[in-house]
Design a protein that fits this description.
With about 625 residues, the protein is α/β, with parallel strands linked by helices. The chain contains 19 helices and 25 strands. The structure holds fructose -6-phosphate.
Length: about 625
């Protein structure tokens, strides 16, 4: 969740660190800090830290004329200790300075042991333990030319938990040491300079050549080279990738917010995700990996594991997979599954769905599933080389491009596109997709980006609705069948960025309790596609209307509803049958965006949240 950048060069690295931090701010934004060497005339480490955004740190860097050719920097999402200057990274012990992403689980025991050695703790963080531990190991063996590297290696062997760290020492101006276990970290290769960061976007301004570190790796960076050792201490070569990420993909361009940009990028993101399919004449299992045909032929059910928005994508998929491909499907919140005693089925296909591919709960759930004997794993993910992608034997990459707004938008719709595709492939393999129907479905997939584009045209109407939501404290979202998870996603979007309390219900559940909440102050948003359940939904809407609730209905062009039936209605200009849930998502994203904006909230960085939840 926190963001790390490190650099060793023959030039001032402060602008590189600050630029990197700005690009990593989506990972955490309650405080930030940096430490550099090589600028101060006396050779001393210069450290700055501030609460709030990176821009505050930048002001501090300017005011103090921060300068150096070796440095580390951090943007924080607090886990241990409130956001404050003293808890902001880097943490310092003697000559050692450390930034850290993750959680050290044995920090209490280590703190006691280090206190007994005379170390004094000045922060509430688990990270300070790492700084003192490295310092202690460095003191024990200060001799070799690789003293810091060796001290870090000895120290990480004592840590339990998840971490990505970057370390420098005042006593060594020629080395930057990094290590990872359970939290993302990559190296960036330059010309006479090298870098490290939590993700590629942070280094885009300096290099496109990156090395993804594996769990347990420790690396020593000099200006000329990088050396990596694995958990066993063996020197290892890791592949160098040329990142395809363009600067434009992570810039705002003409938009005011990343969330707005990402909502409007959805037609393109879905088109990119489906590119290989839309030009094809038929659906092939190999879209999901070379072994997909064999594995898909052997499975008898599906188990989906995911969190948050990605979990909602899984819930939509259950309706598709059972209703269309005829394959039993369970969907579980990863953080629940990982601690639940469940009955494993080695013939189930375990699907993890994740934007980041680094979500700690989803990763742990997958590891747990494997430990129970599950052997078939498919990862649907937006980040190549992420931990979830590497841990699976089948993979499908959504090609949404970097998603920077904390509220997930284009990741969700591209996940749905991937899951629709999977459903069609499995339906075909199970003899449930006649050729004529396959052609029809391929056609509707090809039309999907255009349909999404036309749905975005409802924005002005949504803005009118949004004004009415601004003073509200609560909202209910209703849907039936496959649109129930879309109602859940709509409620999640509204609550996380507007801070209006929002809940979603399967509309048929209303009279079993939540109807008691409905009065004239309660806006009720209903998703009303013209599907088999529309008459049932209309009865539920009448129940709301009879209690004075304010109805806001998102319908299809041909949904039979009149002004008498509802108070507010927006009709989607296009509809896509099986793919209808994807289209119905967009107005809900726009509603959350505009309400949050009108309430003066920071749309891209909602309070208390961060993207890429790499801690439990
Ligand atoms: C909500 C949101 C989160 C994520 C969740 C899982 O807008 O973004 O609920 O969906 O934290 O993240 P990933 O998909 O990266 O595993």
């Amino acid at each position: 969740m926190c963001g790390i950048v490190g650099a060793i060069a023959r030039r001032n690295v402060v602008p590189i660190l600050l630029e990197g931090l700005k690009r990593l701010e989506y990972r955490g934004y309650d405080s930030a800090g940096a430490a550099v060497l090589g600028g101060a005339a006396d050779g001393k480490l210069q450290r700055i830290r501030s609460t709030g955004r990176v821009v505050e740190l930048e002001k501090l860097a300017q005011a103090q004329g921060l300068n150096g050719d070796l440095g580390i920097a951090h943007t924080r999402w607090a886990t241990h200790g409130v956001p404050s200057e003293k808890n902001a990274h880097p943490h310092v012990s003697g000559s050692v300075s450390v930034v850290h992403n993750g959680i050290i689980e044995n920090h209490d025991a280590m703190r006691e042991a280090l206190r007994a050695k005379g170390y004094v703790f000045v922060s509430d963080t688990d990270t300070e333990v790492i700084a003192h531990l490295i310092n202690s190991n460095l003191r024990d063996d200060p001799g070799s030319g690789h003293a810091l590297f060796d001290a870090v290696r000895r120290s990480v062997a004592e840590l339990v938990g998840a971490y990505a760290i970057a370390v420098i020492s005042e006593a060594d101006r020629d080395h930057l040491i990094v290590a990872r276990h359970g939290a993302p970290l990559l190296l960036g290769l330059g010309d006479g300079e090298n870098f490290a960061a939590s993700d590629t976007s942070a280094l885009i301004q300096v290099t496109q050549r990156v090395i993804y570190l594996e769990d347990g790796d420790v690396a020593e960076l000099t200006r000329a080279a990088v050396e990596i050792v694995d958990t066993q201490g063996n020197a290892v070569e890791r592949a160098v990738h040329v990142s395809q990420l363009s600067a434009a993909a992570v810039e705002l361009g003409p938009y005011s917010h990343y969330m707005q940009k990402e909502i409007f990028e959805q037609p393109m993101a879905v088109a990119n995700t489906l590119e290989m399919v839309t030009s094809a004449q038929s659906l092939a299992p190999q879209l999901f990996g070379v072994d997909a045909e064999k594995i898909f032929g052997d499975i008898d059910s599906v188990l989906i594991l995911a969190c948050g928005t990605s979990f909602h994508a899984g819930m939509v998929a259950r309706y598709w997979l059972e209703g269309f491909a005829g394959i039993p499907c369970n969907v579980e919140i990863a953080s629940e599954y990982r601690y639940r005693q469940s009955v494993p089925n080695p013939k189930a296909l375990v699907i993890t769905i994740s934007q980041s591919g680094e979500t700690a709960d989803t990763l742990a759930a997958l590891q747990y599933a494997k430990s129970l004997g599950h052997q078939y794993c498919l990862s649907i993910c937006n980040v190549p080389e992420s931990a979830l992608v590497r841990a699976a034997n089948l993979r499908f990459l959504t090609r949404a491009g970097p998603e920077i707004g904390v509220a997930s938008t284009k990741a969700f719709t591209t996940q749905l596109a991937a899951l629709a595709l999977l459903t069609m492939v499995l339906a075909k393999m199970r003899g449930r997709l006649p050729a004529v129907r396959e052609t029809e479905l391929l056609k509707s997939l090809r039309h999907l980006p255009t349909a999404l584009q036309s749905v975005l045209e409802v924005e002005p109407q949504i803005e009118t609705w949004a004004r009415e939501f601004v003073p509200r404290h609560h909202a209910l979202f209703l849907g039936r069948g496959i649109h129930y998870p879309i109602a859940m996603e709509g409620a999640l979007k509204l609550k996380e960025i507007s801070y209006i309390h929002a809940e979603a219900y399967a509309a048929g559940e209303l009279k079993h309790g939540p109807l008691a909440l409905v009065d004239k102050y309660m806006p009720v948003i209903a998703i009303a596609p013209n599907d088999a359940l529309i008459e049932k939904l209309k009865s539920n809407l009448q129940e709301v209307k009879a209690r004075g609730g304010q109805l806001y209905v998102i319908a299809d062009q041909d949904t039979r509803l009149t002004g008498d039936d509802v108070l507010h209605i927006i009709r989607l200009p296009d509809h896509a049958g099986l793919l209808s849930p994807i289209l119905h998502t967009l107005p809900l994203q726009l509603l959350a965006y505009h309400v949050a904006l009108m309430r003066g909230n920071d749309v891209d960085k909602p309070r208390n949240l961060a993207k890429s939840v790499t801690v439990e």
